[in-house]
Amino acid sequence: MALDPTALSAQTEPTARPGTPLGRFGVTMPLAAFGLNLALLTPVVVTLALKVEDVSPATKERDLGIILGIGAFLALVSNPLAGRLSDRTASRFGMRRPWLLGGSVLGALGLAVIALADGVLLIGVGWCVTQVAYNGALAALSATLPDQVRSERRGAVSGLVGITTLLSVVAGSLLAAVFGGDVGRFLVPAAIALVLVGVFVVVLRDRMASGTPARLDLRGFLGSFVFDPRRYPDFGWAWLTRFTFVFAAATGLTYLPYFLSDELGIPTDEVPGRVAVATVAAAGATVLASVLGGFLSDRIGRRKPFVVVAALVAMVGLIVVALSGSFTQLVIGEVILGVGTGCFYAVDLALITEVLPSADDVAKDLGVINMANALPQSLAPAIAPVFLAIGGYPLLFIAGAVVGIIGALLVTRIRSVA
After folding, report:
1. Where is the Major facilitator superfamily (MFS) profile domain (predicted)?
2. Residue-by-residue DSSP string for 192-209
3. Are 244 and 406 in contact (CB under 8 A)?
4. pLDDT in tens, 297-338
């Protein structure tokens, strides 16, 4: 049963907003997202693969898949759980700020463990700590958008978040190319995240818990990871849309360094620089698509058409990457993929905030959505060896594109948002 849009809007609007000036929030919140994604995505894009290859070159694909899979599973659990706890945090510093700052500090410690590790096991431990910590911070950060900004203004802010997410990948690639050692490659992004999140924490007029939260029993704990799709069908379709898109993107993102070296024959010491070139080339088009998509979506008052078109464009880009026979062709595919990805994340986040089931559990519900970010990162490495054995990286990327196209069609099932 579709929800009444008016009732849904009332459900998802907090009764009293903390009142952070929109200008300050619109700048510092995306910057905090940039910092957290820089620290979390730089290892996923390039540095973790290089670190694993350095300590176990003979079994790099298997070891990287195991590490990413376990880490993604922990992200899957920690994000909604941290969201639920954030919604129930009654500290004098607010509901979100303790999780933002604490997660950033703990995440930096996890990256330090990876930087100093000399074996696969220790790399895995560090990555698990990193995933748990930064996903806890991201759960709290996502909740500040519906906490602070009314639904009709969220497209513009989420568009900026979409830009900074991509720019974090670009910046991470550049940092990996500039810093030759593990300490710089892992700890510089962590330090940047600490600074930017710290600035946001200072600026944020955080939402305060009303009353004393009820105890979190076993039923409440398990409820952190589930929702009723029969009661909230639009929320369910939004979850599936995000899941399929992230799954598609994860197939290309995770194994891009190995695709460059194994398929295109690029020497290993040149891979960080080539990854940086590809992401920088995509950045300009992605920034434009993200800003334009978020602005037009707010102006026209529609979300679904932008999400559908953006997802389809991104999948065309992934197919071009899969069929690349040269680095130039790969860069063209990455630019197309970046355009679609930038617009998708800009508008999809705004759409999601309009189908949340409750204003009282904003961070928990966004944590459930973020499971759609984490779960594909666990499944993709687990499934990848099958496709790699049959048809190599091209087949893996094309299979991911097919899943992404299915996701683009699923968003049309949402009824309460235009």
Report:
1. 23-418
2. HHHHHHHHHHHH------
3. yes
4. 888 888 898 889 999 999 999 999 999 999 999 999 989 998
Spatial separation of the C-alpha atoms in residues 150 and 25, rounded to whole Å: 12
Instruction: Identify the segments of the chain with pLDDT beneath 70.
Output: 1-20, 151-152, 154-155, 159, 162, 166, 211-227, 359-364, 367, 377-378
Q: How far apart are CA 392 and CA 114, in angstroms?
A: 29
Q: Check if the beta carbon of residue 366 is closer than 8 Å to that of residue 356.
A: yes
Cβ distance 321 to 255 under 8 Å? no
Residues 6+ positions from 42 with CB-CB distance below 8 Å = 168, 169, 171, 172, 173, 175, 176, 185, 186, 189
In this prediction the pTM is 0.70
From residue 69, give the alpha-carbon distance in Å to each of 128, 131, 150, 260.
10, 11, 36, 22
Pick the closest to residue 242 from 365, 394, 149 (CA basis). 365
DSSP lists the bridge partners of residue 94 as: 91
Domains of the chain by residue range: 5-11+20-205+220-413
How many C-beta atoms surround the C-beta of residue 121 within 10 A?
A: 12
Max Cα–Cα distance, the chain, nearest Å: 61
Number of residues that make up the chain: 418
Residue range 5-11+20-205+220-413, CATH number: 1.20.1250.20
Q: How far apart are CA 236 and CA 226, in angstroms?
A: 10
DSSP label of 47: I
State how far the alpha carbon of 418 is from the alpha carbons of 234, 295, 345, 350, in Å. Answer: 12, 15, 17, 12
